[in-house]
Design a protein that fits this description.
Oligomer: single chain
Order of helices and strands: HHHHEHEEHEHEHEHEHEHEHHEHHEE
CATH class of the largest domain: Alpha Beta
Number of domains: 3
Number of strands: 12
Shape: globular
Strand order of the largest sheet: 1-2-6-5-4-3-7-8-9
Strand content: 5-15%
CATH topology of the largest domain: Rossmann fold
CATH architecture of the largest domain: 3-Layer(aba) Sandwich
Radius of gyration: 21 Å
Largest sheet: 9 strands, mixed
Number of helices: 15
């Protein structure tokens, strides 16, 4: 399914608050949010439907809807800070990210969301980067800016900060693991302020949320999703940078790496990526050449309205039983369920949505689903 069409995105504050409330509610992950908005014309209509859908999935109660007062406080806190809510499907939502599987339903943005344009490159790497690594990164980011490319990174120490410094004048986007108002590390406070003034800071987390260790892989997925390609400047074999590279590969992004000495563990991850097929980067020419190979894909990113609306499906108890019998404790691909059941994709999606809202379904990355509590 393509990204949300504009007709689904909220157009006023009431709609944005309902969108935020749905996204913050229990059991509403990105896939479930997308399925709900596929079937209902607004977030409020989806919120109203949650109890009935969960009951059909076998739950005694529906998902706990986010507290209205708490959501209102988050929304007002964002407005007070000058942040903007970017809803999936709206024109301001980053186009590259909208095209990835399970794109976040919303982002908070400080600064100019237009900086996160299609022609973007992510640069990530070690926090304890070498002096040469920092110099190379800053120069590469500056050259990318001159070539009209925005630079995406995570505002961490080391390579991330160097990437932002090199591109802050031409256009850079910092993606945070916490809320957009929760800077980490504090050493980058001045850089953060400069990015807010000249670029953009993005996060899918609530205002005031402090990022934790388990939040960084999810942040890394956004970094790669915002870009056409990812350059790993320095990184050990077991590092967050390689997690970002893995996400980039899964998302169909170009994976690139800067080679380094075999004697420096900070180059181990980059050298491994190159061995596995990543593009070797010596400078901007290598990056632009690699991205030119995928430039035609940019034409495929625009959402198509006709691909979005799910057909209305009638209740069919016998067919629902067939679908349920195909599910078990081990993940199975949704396409296989459709093929083996003989049911339409819309019907299978509805059954899975009901189970999800009932807390009886686990969704795996890549589209696999499994029953829980069996």
């Amino acid at each position: 399914m393509n990204a949300f069409p504009a007709s689904r995105a909220p157009t006023d504050e009431v709609g944005e608050v309902a969108w935020l409330r749905l996204a913050r509610s229990e059991r509403i992950g990105p896939v479930t949010f997308a399925e709900l908005m596929c079937r209902y014309p607004s977030a409020q209509a989806a919120l109203d439907a949650l109890p009935d859908l969960a009951a059909k999935g076998g739950a005694k109660r529906g998902p706990k809807v986010a507290d209205a007062a708490m959501v209102a406080r988050e929304y007002e806190a964002g407005k007070a800070m000058g942040a903007r809510l970017l809803a999936l499907g709206a024109a301001a939502y980053p186009v590259n990210l909208a095209a990835v599987e399970a794109a976040p339903p919303l982002l908070w943005c400080l600064g100019d969301p237009a900086i996160a344009r299609v022609e973007a490159v992510a640069i990530v790497g070690a926090r304890n980067a070498s002096a040469l690594g920092l110099r190379f990164t800053e120069a590469l980011a500056r050259d990318l800016g001159k070539a009209g490319r925005a630079v995406i990174s995570g505002l961490a120490r080391g390579v991330d900060a160097a990437a932002h410094r090199g591109s802050v004048e031409s256009g850079t986007v910092a993606v945070l693991a916490g809320g957009v108002d929760s800077l980490w590390p504090p050493q980058n406070a001045a850089l953060y302020d400069e990015i807010v003034a000249k670029g953009a800071v993005l996060s899918e987390r609530p205002m005031g949320y402090q990022g934790r260790a388990q939040d960084f892989p999810r942040r890394n997925r956004l970094v790669s999703g915002l870009a056409q390609g990812v350059v790993v400047a320095e990184g050990a074999e077991r590092s967050g940078s390689l997690i970002t590279a893995r996400y980039a590969g899964e998302q169909g992004r170009e994976v690139m790496a800067v080679p380094g000495s075999p004697l420096d563990p900070r180059a181990g991850g980059c050298n491994l990526l190159i061995r596995e097929g990543a593009t070797l980067v010596r400078g901007i020419d290598d990056v632009l050449e690699a991205l030119a190979r995928i430039s035609a894909q940019a034409q495929l990113l625009a959402p198509r309205e006709e691909d979005w609306d799910a057909p209305m499906v009638a209740e069919d108890a016998a067919m629902k039983r067939v679908v349920l019998d195909l599910l078990g404790p081990h993940p199975v691909d949704v396409d296989e369920i459709i093929r083996r059941s003989g049911a339409s994709s819309g019907f299978v999606s509805l059954v899975l949505l009901e189970l999800d809202l009932a807390g009886r379904l686990h969704r795996e990355p890549g589209g696999g689903v499994a029953m829980t509590g069996i």
